[in-house]
Amino acid sequence: MLLTATVFLPLAGAAVVLLLLGDNARRVRLFAAAVGIVDFVLALAVFLQYDRDDGGFQLTDKFASWIPQLDIQYHLAVDGLSAPLVLLTGLLGLAAIYSSWSIDKRHREYFAWLLTLQAAVMGVFTAQDFVLFFIFWELELIPMFFLISIWGSGRKEHSAMKFLLFTFTGSAFMLVGILAVYFSTCALGTCTFDMTRLVEMDLSDLLLPSQLVFALFFIAFAVKLPIFPVHTWLPDAHTDAPTAVSVMLAGVLLKMGGYGLIRINVSMFPDVASAAATALAVLAVISILYGAMVTFRQSDLKRLVANSSISHMGFVLLGISSVGATAEHLSPVGLTGAAMQLFSHGVVTGLLFVMVGVVYDKTHTRHIPDLGGLAGKMPFAAVAFLVAGLASLGLPATSGFAAEIMVFLGTFPAHGVLTGLATVGVLMAAGYVLWTLQRSLFGPRRERWDHLGDITHVEKVAPVLLMVAIMAVGLYPALLSDVFATGINEVLPRFTP
Amino acid sequence: MSGSDLYLLSPELCVAAGALLAIIANMANANRAVVTALGLLGIVAALVFTGLLWAELDGRVDICTVLEGDRGTAVYGALAIDRFALFFKGLIGISAGLVLLASYAYSQRFAERSAEFTALVLLAAVGMMLLAAGRELITLYVALELSTLPLVALAAFSGGQRASEAGLKYLVLGAVASAILLYGMALTFGYTGTTVLEGMALSVGDAALDGSRPFGVQVLVLGVVLMVAGFGFKVAAVPFHGWIPDVYEGAPTPITAFLSVASKAAGFAVVMRVFFTAFEPLEVDWALLFAGIAAASMTFGNLAAIAQTNIKRMLAYSTIAHAGYLLVGLAAVASRTADGDTIGPETVLFYLGGYAVTNLAAFFAVIAIAERTNSESISSFARMGRRAPWVAAALTVALLSLTGIPPTVGFMAKLFVFGAAVKADLAWLVALGAVNSVVSAYYYLRVVRVMYLGDPATVETSDGEQPARGIPLDLSVAVTAVAVVVLGLYPRPLFHAAERAVERLF
Questions:
Q1: Residues of A with CB under 8 A from a CB of B
Q2: In this predicted model, what pLDDT tens digit does every residue of A220-239 receive, in sequence order?
Q3: Chain A residues with CB inside 8 Å of B423's CB?
Q4: pTM, entire model
Q5: Which residues on A lie below 8 Å from B429 (Cβ)?
Q6: CA torsion B355→B358→B364→B368, rounded to 10°?
């Protein structure tokens, strides 16, 4: 019942917010925060309860006869791959609620959608039935659509629709893939949507060519991750979304793409994955370098962070491409690194967006040349921003370093040259991050910012939480990598012939 | 005609009696409430008898011994009494009842003719019920006319230019479709020498073997294709969709809802029964025919809907698209597995059921909103999320269901139908359908966006006067919208009923 509670508590909270609380902004906020805290505690409990020595799927919640005619089950469970991501979702959900304190219109709807979003993402990471997975995957679209288009800024309606259409197109392909897998298992004698069983089956002989099915899933996850050339929705959506939604979007929604790639593309179609590994690595390197180059050109603080996400999520795909290594070089390091990068990018970019939001709230501008000299006025915010930036460029002792080094170590045996090229992305990250920090936080004091003060205690909650996570993982990566490795080690034997 | 036939035909008879009672009550100067109540009474009685007959087929009730095994026929074999027919009688009955309920406020505007309104809806429902049960061509034809003619009158019911255009268009195009259908029936009768569907199946099967007919099997195929055209009119598939937008826009909104749901369901019922009993032995590749129509309907309907500014016209094109999704299911049914099993006929029935509640919810919400704004243009829906939160929420749920986004019944329906099609090796059609869903998301969600975001400047200030909408409309909006979500989360009962319904037909 623990997982069911973790997934549905935010949804219940959303219903309460919408129906019972009335229009008192303060009460709504406090209630939402309480739900966020409890759900974070539950997510933490999931993470801690997961027994990494036993491995496999644990904490299973199952209701087998949901739609028996098509063998669709209600089935939640976590393994080493999903347990940390559940924790990440709880953490960022809480951070998102705390960075929504300044929302000034339609509170009830806002928090209801934000909590629904959190429930949907929790569901994606825990669902082990393909149809249930898909339902949660789609459920996340609606809150995002409303959150961006009502509370966003700039061309918010355009961005919301673009986000929706891109993701929905991807999931349309995924639905075809899911159905193809299901009916192929029927041909094998046992019809099943059960993902825990599907990873154990041989899916090389499907109704459709398995390369095609792989591609159907890949498109859906590539849009979400995002990978060049289907990334164009991301800068728009991130830039126009309200702060908390950018946090959720960058922090956990993109992770659904990486999670799907590992959980489905890699685990269920190992042969295709290793055959396609070089292509994946090339796509990854293009994303990394292209994303970094575009980031350099940004003068809008939020757009800059958004574009850097494209580059950083490229490392996830690069880590995944390590499955192309020959048998004697194949190791869990690359995939574990990819999973670590999911978590790390979640907390780091989450923190970056929180800080961009704080800066924008104070200064009402995100135009980098207009900023500068803020550090003296808001030291706490500057430190948090700095930590996020340094983690983003992969400084040792931060989570970013732990993740990226593992990706490089794991991928090098498989794609030496491409990995080498990818390291240039890290270099460029150092460039744009430091340059940005210098221009926005440091430099000569400006009179126009003299009236600013440091952030309030409420606003400190989210940065502190995320900084703790960044440093903890950076200093002791095994905290996470052990759990991730438990999940990856279940996948890896499928690659050895 | 024997006494037991009265029992077997009780659903139709109850509805017809409701119609007559409504007219009689009107002559006795009863008010609108009484008239509508009598009509609803007829429908409730019909639903009770439908349930009773279903139980009889299950062997749980034993009132009459005519039903041997789990199917039977009535009126000298002209009508089938099987679960397939009963499923559709239930669906049509429920739709008609909800439409009557929802139009209670709406029919105020033609108060002096509200008895006729009620009676015509009920008579059309009788025709549709018979259509679902007919197993003989002439019965089918008569039932088709009975279901069409009242709808012609209803389409023109509000008076005025648009309504007259709607009625006339429906009448003329309907007549053309009927003529084509008759021609097709005549050809198939000439070839097979019988009008009973099962007899035709036997004859077709023999003919395929001996080749002794005076004219080739091509004539039969031509006849069948002409019948497809005739029924295609009823289900509103491309290229027989020309009447849809104008009729849907001109007709009173409750009638549009009724047309889009019950009429379509009856059309699919008859297509399924005719094709998969009579012409099954022909072994022509119907799958390709249906797949082609499906692809055209989905694509055309969705693309044309994008450009619409009137909500009823938009929903009109959307019903064409949904006819396409349903035909994806029929294409799957038509392309059997290697060992001759049919694939997923129950998914088509489930889709029809899910689509019925969804579309009814959408149209009822549109009625409720249009009553407030006196406008059916999408831009007038601005700020509905504030002005009428519950109705806006219901419309949102319905539109999400039409798009096929969980947790609504529309998602489950699409999942099942597309699943059947993938199983039938029609993955290309499913991919096309899935892409079409994306296109449809654009225009469905545009309405949602207008309701929750729309520019307040464009809102006509009609907030002041709140016309009497009344509890019946609110109730029907609530019932259908809740059903959309409940069936989306727990589709099992409906799916089970659909499975039972097709057990013996195939």
A1: 66-70, 131, 134-135, 138-139, 141-142, 145-146, 149-150, 157, 160-161, 164-165, 168-169, 172-173, 175-176, 179-180, 182-183, 186, 207-208
A2: 999 998 898 888 999 888 88
A3: 179, 183, 186, 207
A4: 0.90
A5: none
A6: -150
